Amino acid sequence: ENCHWDNSRGSLIVLEGLDRSGKTSQSNSLVSFLKGKGVPVEAWHFPDRSTTVGGMISSYLANKSQLDDRTIHLLFSANRWEKSSLMETKLKSGVTLVVDRYSYSGVAFSAAKGLDIQWCKAPEEGLIAPDLVLYLDIPPEKAAERGGYGSERYEHLDFQQKVASHYTNLHDHTWKVIDACQPAEDIEKQLRELALECISSRRDGKPLSR
Ligand code: DGP
Ligand code: NA
Ligand code: NA
């Protein structure tokens, strides 16, 4: 039975995890499920490679350009900022956004290069805060076994191990940690329940926070 989702803002639901944690297929599956329930919802993904800034990020990830660590950090952040007013408009109009990666990726991946964590967090301050972060937890070694990494810059086991250790320091009250080594259907089921619970509780009118 579909619920009535009107009169409430949308939820900002973020999926995080290492490369090859299954995030992208899980977020697509979650969005299809929510659409089927009548929830106004869109799938988003950062980095958004379709913008000018996103093109620079994409070229960097493909090793086609070199940028210093702080420069690329700020570009990833700018890529979230350039979408933030659209994000706000969508959420306020009642659309739930399921976002594959957000500020936590920004901090975990740059901190893995040795950059200071507070410095990494600073440009993220003021972005819209997620209502729910679904962390797909997988040991880096297991992720590496999953058909191997692609050829992008960060897709190496030693780097992913560092990213994993930084992610564990970023958990806050909005996080739910899901064991990503479970069968895909079990993960799907848990994500669906958590997302529906989050969306229903938005009807209490909790405002967006930063
Ligand atoms: P994806 O398109 O989700 O596969 O992400 C591309 C790669 O970029 C992936 O290795 C994760 C990494 N990444 C995503 N967001 C950020 C960010 O904000 N900062 C940094 N340094 N890396 C990021
Ligand atoms: Na990737
Ligand atoms: Na991905």
UniProtKB/TrEMBL annotation:
Domain of life of the source: Eukaryota
Coiled-coil intervals: none
Domain annotation Thymidylate kinase-like: ranges: 15-190
Similarity comment: Belongs to the thymidylate kinase family.
Protein name: Thymidylate kinase
Part of the full-length chain shown: 362 to 571 of 575
